[in-house]
Each structure stands twice: as C-alpha cells, then as structure tokens.
Amino acid sequence: MKLPPASAQDRSLPAPAEVADSYLEVAQRASLLLRRHMKKTARKGIWFPSEEFAGAKAYMDLSARLLASPYRLAQTQMAMMRDHIQLWQQTTLRRMGLPFHSVVGPDADDTRFDDQAWEDNFLFDFIKQSYLITARHLHQTVASAASLDETTQQRVNTLTRQYVDALSPTNFALTNPEVLRETVDSKGKNLLKGLKHLLKDLAAGDQQGLPRPDDRGDLRLGADLAGTPGKVIYQNELLQLIQYQAAGSHQHRKPLLIVPPWINKYYVFDLGDSDSFVRWASEQGFTTFIISWVDPDQRLAQKDFADYLVDGVLAAIDAVEQATGEKQIDLVAYCLGGTLLMATLAWMAAQRDTRAASATFLGTLIDFSEPGELATLAEAAAPGAKKTARSRAGHGAALASTYQMLHANDLIWSFVVNSYLLGKDRFPLEQLHWNADSTRMPTALHQFYVENFYQANKLCQPGGVALAGVDIDISRVKLPCYFLATIEDHIAPWQSAYRGAQLPGGARRFVLGGSGHLAGTINPPAARRHGYWTNDTTPLPEKADDFLSSATRHHGSWWTDWQKWLLAQADANTLVVARQPGERALKVIEDAPGSYAAGRGDPPAAG
Questions:
Q1: Is 258 exposed, middle or buried (0-12, 13-18, 19+ CB in 10 A)?
Q2: Which stretch of DSSP H or E encloses residue 163?
Q3: All residues at 6 or more sequence positions from 502 whose CB lies less than 8 Å from its CB, including other chains
Q4: Which of 145, 192, 179 shows the shortest CA–CA distance to 25?
Q5: CB-hemisphere CA count at 13 Å for 317?
Q6: CA distances from 568 to 12, 346, 565 (A)
Q7: Per the residue annotation, which of 281, 335, 381, 412 is the catalytic one?
Q8: Cβ neighbours around 512 below 10 Å, total
Q9: 467-482: burial string, b at 16+ Cβ within 10 Å, e else
Q10: How far apart are CA 413 and CA 161, in angstroms?
Q11: Residue 11 has pLDDT above 60, yes or no
Q12: What is the DSSP letter of 314?
C-alpha cells in the first residue's frame, strides 16, 4: 500500500540534505574551535572530574535485587514492549491517514515538548512518545525494586530521574525540531555560537558542567532583582534586616518578618516586580521585614545552628520590635529557614516569649523520617568528607548544584538547549540567577543540621536537641501555624511536610500547592497558575493521602488563601499609620538589597 504524502507540517521541517550539509559545515568549523580550546586548556594543566562511587554501588545493589526476581523483571520488560508496539501501530495508522491516538503524553507542567512540531510531525511525535514510554517504565522499575534500603532507594530514584532527564530528545540537536530549523536557517551559526558559549563556560572553570548565569550584568541587583524599595535598618555578623517602604497610608498593626533559607540570597521573595512576594505583601498593607543572611567566610566557620537561632531569628525579632514598637509579630519562613523558625518558636515557648503571633512554613521539613531527594546532601557530612568540608568556608555551591540537579529540566537542560544548541544570547532568567547566587554554609552549622536532622531526625523528638541551653519540644508551640507544601516538591516532599504539620500544639492550616518547591511557592495571584488544595476537616486527617483524597482544588494562588487566614487571626485587622524605615529606634544603614546580598567586600560594622 502506498503511504500518503507527508503533511504540510512535515514539509515545514528542513530537507535531510540541507540538514546534512549544515551539520557537516558545523562539524568542520567546530573542530577548529575545539582544537584551539584543548591547546589552551593543556597549557593550564589538565583537570579530571571527581568520581563518585556511591551512585555506582547503589545501582549494583539495584541490579542484584532486580536479577533476584527474573519473572518480575520480565513482566516489566514485556509491559514496556507492549507500549512500544502500540506506539508503532498508532504511528502506522497515522501515516495511513486513519484514526489514531497517542499512547502517552507529557505532564501538564512539562514544557520541553511545547514546539508544535512535536505534535504535528509524525516522526517527532514518535520520538517524543518513545522517550516518554521508556522514561515511565524506567522510573517504575526502579521505584518498585524490592528489599532496597531507604537511602539506596532514594539515591537510585534521584539518579535515574537525572539520567532520564539528560537523555530527553529535546537536549540533542538532531532530535529537537526547533534546533533543526534554526540550524538550517542560520546555516549552523547557532551551533557555533553555542559551542563558543560552552567553551567559555569551561574556560571559566565550571568543572561540574552546570550552567550558570554568565553575564550577570543582564540582571541588576536592586533593579531587575531585589528591586522593591526598602532599607537595611539592622545588622550583625550573620544578617542584615531589611524593612520595606510602606505602599499606602496605613498598615496592619502586626509587622511581618520573613526568614529565608541561608543557602541562597533572600531575594527569592523579590525576584522581580511581578513575582515579588515582599512587594505584594507591602501592597496588602503589611509592614514587611526580611532577613538577608551573610555569605560566611572562614571566620564564621564555627557558627552553628544555635548561633543562627540566637543571633539570627531572635535578633531579627528583637530588631522588628524596636523598629515598630510592637510586641506581636507574624512570621513567615521558607525551606531551611522554616526548620530554623520552628526550632526558634519551640525555644521561645520554653522561655515564655510570646512575641510570635503566628507562623507560616513554606516547603519546610520538620519531620525528617522521609526527607526526599535532598537527603543526598547528607553524603557531604559523611565521615570521609568531613576533613574536606572543614577546609572550605561552606557548602553553598554544592547545595545550589544539588538544587539544580533536582530541577534539571527547568534549571539545566532549558539552559543547555537555549545557550548551547540554539545559540541564544544569555537570557536573564531570574530563578537561574538566584539559584546560582548561593551563600556558603558554616561547616559547624552544616554538620549539625545533617547529623541531627537528616540522619537522626531529632527535631521532632521532644528534647531530642538542646539549643542555647533549652531542650527543644515542638509540641510546646501553641500559636496558629500555616503550612504550605507543593505536590511536585523533591526538596521537601509534601507528605513529609504534612507529618511535620502535625507536631505543633496549636491551630494548624495545611495547604497543598501545585507545581514544585520554588514555582509552587513563588506563585503570585496575577499569574493565575498552578492552583492549590485545601481541606477544612478539623482536626487535620492523620495521613497525608486522606487529606488529599477529601481536599478541594482551587484555582489561583495560595497567597490569597494565606492572606485570608492571617487576617482572620486575633487583632489582625487593626490598622496604624504607615511605618517607614528608620523613623523609630533603628536608623537606616543603607538601601536594600544591602551589602550582604550584593557581596560588596567585607560587611559593614555590626549595628
């Protein structure tokens, strides 16, 4: 039977001969660039990437478990074969002009296959579905392996997902229709320009091969990022405290203090005007403060978790009280900052310090019994690594790299395609810039956090840890608490965050947001994306799955739900004349974003 001619969409792609000619020319010219780069590198001395054996051992254990159940492995292989046969059948029907259907499709949040050719062109549609079928079965095979210990299971899950992400057809020039079109249209200039970008990054010393915002001038701190008007009104050796200018004539009486994680700069809450939580909060009438953590050097290497509690969160609460005269403060914390805040609240409860009026925890782990893929950070504190860790000022770059790998499609491979394959000028991606702008973690803090929380899970045990002379018991925390987790979070899995939400002794609200750790949190109402789930059952269901099974899905942003919850608390709607930075006891030190965030040499003297 003679097949019908290719569709008009098929013919819109370059002819094979044009593609071959373009890639031949690119290969010839690229070889010259590579030879020059290798000569230049050889003069500097050859470097070799470090080898990690933990992953190899995990996969050896996995192989042993799979081979121990050959019947189950054969079932898995047959299931994948059936899906591929069905894909071949449906593709044949499509080429014959008969009704057909897709065997598998990308997730709603997967933007890799947005180019219309992935749908319109039968060949690229076949490649896409073949990849997705294989990826799905690989994940299922790894996840269902029997008798693996929890750490090994987590490691193979993480590494398999990274492997599958790396092999996506969108990451290769010959299997990405957008790259194919651009290669022919530009006569290969896109690939040559991309190769120059790659060589420039390698020459800059990025030996891990992870993308970074190369031209930082594209995004200016204080303008494009961290641009909400504010002033630094307090500082010590660990933090600067920023107070934002009032957006109206009156504000809510209770001020709002935000505690970000200490491994990245604070401006995750101020990425840009349209995505800025602090700008939005100020516009809603909150006197908004945020901690900007210092990037510690070797002088601060022995600062530990208790120091960040006392000279960090408690010092900031003291400063907010001085700046406003208020003795009731609403607190918001994100990720690691949330873990620190919960420990601080338990410390305050033991000391009968009642200044915290409410607390909000975003993407926060408190119960570390199932810490998710970020548990791989514990390897950096293993006995064999401690000597090396002590020789460094901290671990910020490693944590940033880990975060990138856990969000590889958004933070790595989209960068690779745009910069190295399409040859585009470096795009000013706010999230990528923020992620690369890491701060170091003091060695003592890192070891305490990993050993006591990730490895021993002591924070959720009454009296499990003692901080600044106080035994920490989270059940003593009686103030109203709001918990946000996100359904695709690999950093703080929502089921683990849900278990942590059961620990404090006061009223609790748990909200499950859409998307992942960052995108689900920084989700402004105007964007109208992701959505969230709530469950008004009182008390909260004991199990996370029970919460979700009876939850209600809402469109829009959790920000408005949080605002409604916060304003429903006691004395929440009392208004005062708008406060401006520096008008009370604490005077203005400098403009936001401040020296600690900008990294301008040594920090100014503590105030």
A1: buried
A2: helix 150-166
A3: 508, 540, 542
A4: 192
A5: 24
A6: 58, 23, 5
A7: 335
A8: 25
A9: bbebebbbebbebbbb
A10: 13
A11: no
A12: I
Contacts of 73 (CB under 8 A, 6+ apart): 66, 67, 141
Q: What is the pLDDT of residues 537-578, one digit of tens each?
A: 988 999 999 999 999 999 999 999 999 999 999 989 899 999
Distance between CA atoms of residues 260 and 242, nearest Å: 12
Give this prediction's pTM. Answer: 0.72
Write the pLDDT tens digit of every residue in 128-141: 999 999 999 988 88
Round to whole Å and give the CA distance between 212 and 83: 38
Q: In this structure, are residues 162 and 155 in contact, taking their beta carbons and an 8 Å threshold?
A: no
For the record, the structure tokens of 287 come out as: 């006197």
CA torsion 308-405-435-412 (nearest 10°) is 180
CB-based contact 280:524 (threshold 8 Å): yes
In 263-367, which ranges are E strands? 288-293, 329-334, 356-362
Q: 């709001």: which residue's tokens?
A: 482
Contact 184, 191 (CB under 8 A): no
Phi, psi torsion values for 552, nearest 5 degrees:
-105, 130
Q: Are 219 and 291 in contact (CB under 8 A)?
A: no
Integer-rounded Cα radius of gyration of the chain: 26
Q: How far is CA 576 from CA 326, 358, 563, 572, in A?
A: 11, 19, 18, 11
What is the predicted pLDDT for the residue at 391?
Answer: 38
Whether pLDDT at 604 is above 50: no
Q: What is the pLDDT of residue 32?
A: 67
For 241, the token pair is 């405290």
Phi, psi of 534 (to 5 degrees): -130, 160
Contact 446, 396 (CB under 8 A): no
Q: Is 460 a catalytic residue?
A: no
Residues in CB range of 81: below 8 A, 6 or more apart: none
